[in-house]
Design brief:
Distance between the termini of chain A: 29 Å
Shape of chain B: globular
Number of strands of chain A: 2
CATH superfamily of the largest domain in chain B: Lipoprotein localisation LolA/LolB/LppX
Largest interface: A-B, 40 and 47 residues
Strand order of the largest sheet of chain A: 1-2
Shape of chain A: globular
Order of helices and strands of chain B: HHEHEEEEEHHHEEEEEEHEEHHHEEEEH
Structural class of chain B: alpha+beta
Largest sheet of chain B: 12 strands, mixed
Oligomer: heterotrimer
Number of domains of chain B: 2
Number of helices of chain A: 9
Radius of gyration of chain A: 20 Å
Strand order of the largest sheet of chain B: 7-8-9-10-11-1-2-3-4-5-6-12
Radius of gyration of chain B: 24 Å
Strand content of chain A: under 5%
Chain lengths: ~280, ~400, ~325
């Protein structure tokens, strides 16, 4: 019996390895990378120089500065594609292992139920970041390939250099990642309820849609600050000069509330659950 | 084996969050203890408030009983290319603005829209208006600092025809308060009603109650910062309503001099930059326009003011409505297409949506069409006059017949 | 005939002593209720250290549920569990690293190689050393004969290979106790022999091995002690000899005078049966204290011409049919 008890970080490494050795994970990352590529190519091919003022935010700016492809792609990806992929990863966390039967071997190892939940959540959170970064980085690369690049005009009309812009893009990726952490916690909880991963994935993605629909109804305005999707498009505040940190802070607080509530629910469920699969 | 305690956190966490949220707002609502001030002392305090360098976040919200225009436009997007819907949007939706003020020479107001922003920057002799969505910048050269304010007002007036949203831009709570405090007359009851906390600061609550049956305004509360005398929040209640019809106030404020960089504005490359005419040019142009519009039979007509105090009605002469593209008679048969100015490049769906909402908002009254909100009424008479005031439509109709 | 009544088997069930140190597994009144069904009902297991212990019972008799509770995967409705030196599930973290398990068949990540699968499970145990991981994984793979397929994706594994991988997982670290649920499932006769040898050699190293099976023959060949489950209850527990001797012996008589023989046997209070051929009579020695030699003497006294006389102890199969009311698949 080895006397040294490691911190158990090897399980995190193992979790990440397993996640990113799956073809499915790469298929989703590929699909996300396709969003900015598609946008950039379509704009390039159909570019007639006239800004129509329609379509997603920043679309008109792309022809002048390719770096805007990242922002347009993010605006498109946030409401649907990102929550969908996060739903798949977060919904799969526990239910996927239960479905394979590997959950019982992890627990017998023993991984520890709380530790396994934390590790699974860490994996999902990392995926949120990788997914967001995929959209941002692919957007910047394809934008630079197809369009001229240069100093970027912020929403406030101020201009930042490319280096400053990449700093902001990184912040932006961080913002979007934080935005998705609440959804990941919800997915983790739903995943502890079932041994059918597809069900947990669908339920998680559906909740993201429901929350956004509720957020669009003015009659439910009192509810809006409590919806986990409330600040999803608030990343624009990082593109102002000076940066408005309010939505970052409010978003972080809201998401940590969701993490606390659904983390506690997931703990309650998973630590008392009979593993019968 | 009872493992139910493991569910305990799931029960406790929501309770903690709700408690924190409730007690947080309870702290915010707790009334601080401040030395007593009479209404008169407080008014003087406001008048002599000196702290003129600050920055903060201003939240403006309106509940005027108008249909919400934001439902007619795609989410996440306001159409600033369309002045009518922008004006409606500013009236009906909530806004957040970042405000930076350093004396009278430097100011920046940033209206924060989702993924868009509108900026007004005043820095010494330069004034800028920038709209991120259309990527258009307007520059105005201000002759000298004494004339800054008058000049900007003139420019805003001039630009109003093209950009009504300029007039509707939320300003600082202090400016809003100024508007109302200027209207205090003998018919107004002025009281200090305790204290409150606004943006983490303790404030006096100054309440103005018009004792005028005709006006729609129920009362106006001004929260005055207890240290600086700067109005931090203004809330207007319509008669018979419990929810504020309009409010503008700081959600965060910092009474330290903002960074000078904030006021430095250079229009971004690729932006359309328009040079606004100077005040003198504007004056000349306006006079020329009036000369042209004036038919020999008509004497030059000025807006007339009917009544006084809170129930003042402003009447714009015949022809104004047509000049602004508003024509009640045309609106009847041809639909609202004539009422709104349709510009090329506007989204047809948006136009249709805004028209439908405008149609919904306007009601037929005896002798014209009227727009009734909880605070303000506007009447467009069949002969093209426009009457407006903080009174009911009935009063406007009555005034139109005098 | 009433089969499997606890009273009958009581003599074979060893009541576990109070001191638990000599047992690797010990349960008291272990019960699991699903809804209205009592899947496991008051089970008192006592598995002495160092034994190869067979856990026998038909499918659905509660074996796997019992094992899940032993390993802390499912919570017991009532009862106590001691595993090695700790109580389950309270001491999961200190006990389970010393226990290797194969529960209800192997489970794999199909998109990982066999080696990566084991590395994953090994990483889940924070007591194992990452430095020795690769060496231990390779050793375990070699031990179950999967060294050649270590890099192959597990979804390409045959049923038998998956089973070997599952056993290798149980052997990743030195264990004090192995809990193997149906370890020879899916294996060909050669594989079955290998697993049997593996278990024997592990046992020689001092590891306690708890093997569950529905195959009597398998248990009989590997185990020194067994416990029998039936419909959620533990109906017998003890050494193989104890269980055999608890059964009823039989006599088998070959004689041309079967009518006389029948008469003599009936006179002794037995119930003779005449089988296929007319000249064979068998009878269970169901009368307490009646020995085969007494039967023989009685036949001689009655001048029954005996061509063959055979006395046999009870076969385990008969014994288990009696205990569980079900037949066993002996052809494993």
């Amino acid at each position: 019996m080895p006397a040294d008890v490691s911190l158990g970080l090897t399980l995190v490494v193992s979790e990440i390895t397993v996640l990113f050795r799956r073809l499915r994970t790469w298929a989703m990352i590929g699909a996300l990378a396709l969003i900015p590529i598609l946008i950039a190519v379509v704009v390039r091919v159909s570019s007639d120089g006239s800004a129509s003022g329609r379509g997603p935010a920043f679309l008109d700016s792309i022809t002048q500065n390719g770096l805007f492809v990242s922002l347009t792609a993010l605006t498109v990806a946030i409401p649907l594609f990102l929550p969908l992929t996060i739903g798949v990863v977060a919904g799969d966390t526990i239910a996927g292992e239960a479905n394979l039967g590997t959950l019982r071997y992890l627990l017998v190892a023993p991984a520890g139920r709380v530790r396994l939940l934390l590790v699974k959540y860490a994996g999902a959170a990392l995926f949120c970041f990788v997914a967001t970064l995929t959209v941002v980085v692919t957007g910047a690369i394809i934008g630079a390939l197809l369009f001229p690049v240069g100093p970027v005009t912020l929403l406030s009309g101020d201009t930042v250099g490319i280096v400053g812009y990449f700093g902001r893009l990184l912040l932006l990726a961080l913002y979007v990642t934080v935005s998705l952490l609440g959804l990941s916690a919800i997915g983790l909880f739903i995943s502890t309820l079932t041994t059918i991963p597809v069900g947990a994935m669908a339920a998680t993605a559906a909740l993201a849609a429901v929350s956004q629909i509720l957020g669009a109804l003015p009659q439910l305005e009192w509810l809006h600050p409590w919806l986990f999707t409330n600040y999803w498009l608030g990343f624009g505040d990082l593109l102002r000069q000076p940066i408005v940190w309010n939505s970052f802070a409010d978003n972080a607080l809201l998401q940590s509330g969701y993490i606390a509530v659904f983390g506690a629910l997931a703990y309650g469920r998973f630590s008392t659950k009979d593993i019968l699969s | 084996m009872n493992k139910n305690w493991r569910w305990l956190p799931a029960g406790i966490v929501p309770v903690v969050i709700v408690t924190a949220a409730v007690s947080g707002s309870a702290v915010a609502e707790a009334q601080p203890q401040l030395p007593a001030k009479t209404a008169q002392e407080l008014l003087e305090f406001v008048a002599t408030s000196t702290d003129d360098a600050y920055s903060g976040t201003v939240e403006q919200s309106s509940d005027l009983g108008l249909p919400d225009i934001s439902m007619a436009t795609p989410p996440g997007r306001t159409s600033s290319s369309d002045p009518t819907s922008t004006a409606l949007e500013l009236l009906t939706a909530d806004h957040t603005a970042q405000v930076y003020v350093d004396g009278t020479e430097k100011a920046r107001v940033q209206v924060l829209d989702q993924l868009a922003q509108r900026d007004v920057v005043i820095n010494g002799n330069d004034a800028w208006y920038y709209d991120s969505e259309s990527n258009e910048a307007t520059h105005a050269a201000l002759p000298d600092k004494d004339a800054v304010k008058a000049d900007l007002e003139a420019k805003l007036q001039e630009k109003a025809a093209e950009h009504p949203e300029l007039l509707n831009l939320p300003r600082t709570p202090a400016e809003v308060a100024e508007v109302f405090l200027a209207r205090i007359d003998p018919s107004t009851e002025v009281q200090v009603e305790g204290t409150s906390r606004v943006a983490g600061r303790s404030a006096y609550e100054l309440v103005l109650t018009p004792e005028d049956d005709a006006t729609l305004i129920g009362s106006i509360s001004v929260s005055v910062d207890s240290e600086t005398g700067v109005p931090l929040n203004v809330t207007v209640l319509a008669k018979g309503q419990e929810e504020a019809a309009f409010s503008a106030g700081f959600s965060a404020v910092d009474f330290s001099t903002p960074d000078a960089d904030v006021f430095a504005f250079t229009p971004p490359a690729g932006a359309t930059v328009t040079e606004a005419p100077t005040a003198d040019e504007v004056k000349a142009e306006l006079e020329a326009k009036q000369d042209l519009a004036r038919t020999p039979a008509e004497a030059p007509q000025q807006p007339t003011v009917i009544g006084e105090g809170w129930s003042t009605i402003v009447e714009l002469p015949a022809g104004t409505a047509a000049g602004l593209g508003l024509d009640a008679a045309a609106g009847n048969a041809a639909g609202m297409g004539d009422i709104m100015e349709i510009k090329p490049g506007m989204d047809p769906e948006e136009v249709a949506g805004a028209q439908a909402l405008l149609e919904q908002a306007l009601t037929d009254v005896d002798g014209g069409k009227a727009l009734q909100t909880s605070l303000v009424s506007v009447l467009v008479t069949d002969d093209g006059r426009i009457l407006a005031g903080a009174v009911g439509v009935d009063q406007l109709v009555a005034a139109s017949r005098q | 005939m009433i089969a499997g009544v606890p009273a009958e088997s009581a003599q074979a069930v060893r009541t576990p002593p109070v001191s638990a140190r000599e047992f690797a597994i010990e349960t008291r009144g272990l019960t699991k209720v699903f809804g209205r069904q009592r899947a496991v009902d008051g089970v008192d297991l006592a598995v002495p250290r160092g034994t190869v212990f067979g856990f026998l019972g038909p499918n659905g008799s509660g074996k796997t549920t019992t094992i899940r509770m032993l390993l802390g995967l499912a919570a017991a409705t009532s009862g106590e569990i001691r595993l090695l030196d700790g109580a389950m599930p309270k001491d999961t973290r200190s006990v389970l690293p010393r226990v290797g398990a194969l529960v209800e068949g192997p489970a794999i990540y199909p998109f990982l190689s066999g080696r990566a699968n084991l590395q994953r499970f090994d990483a889940a145990d924070r007591h194992t050393s990452p430095a020795t991981r690769n060496a231990r994984v390779d050793a375990a793979l070699e031990r179950v004969g999967l060294g050649h397929a270590a890099k192959k994706r597990a979804h390409a594994y045959s049923l038998g290979m998956k089973q070997r991988l599952g056993i290798a997982n149980a052997l990743l670290a030195p264990r004090d106790l192995l809990i193997l649920d149906e370890p020879t499932n899916g294996l060909d006769p050669q594989g079955t022999r290998e697993v049997r040898n593996l278990i024997r050699s592990l046992s020689d190293d001092g590891t306690t091995i708890f093997v569950s099976s529905h195959l009597l023959a398998e248990v009989e060949q590997m185990c020194t002690m067994i416990a029998v489950m039936s419909a959620g209850r533990l109906v017998a527990q003890g050494t193989l000899d104890e269980l055999r001797s608890a059964g009823t012996a039989r006599v088998r008589i070959t004689t041309p005078d079967h009518a006389d023989a029948h008469h003599v046997l009936a006179g002794l209070g037995l119930v003779p049966e005449i089988h296929g051929r007319d000249d064979v009579i068998t009878a269970e020695l169901s009368v307490p204290g009646l020995q085969p030699e007494t039967v023989n003497a009685a036949l001689v006294r009655a001048d029954v011409r005996v061509r063959g006389f055979e006395a046999s102890g009870a076969s385990l199969e008969d014994r288990f049919v009696a205990l569980t009311g079900e037949g066993f698949d002996v052809a494993g």
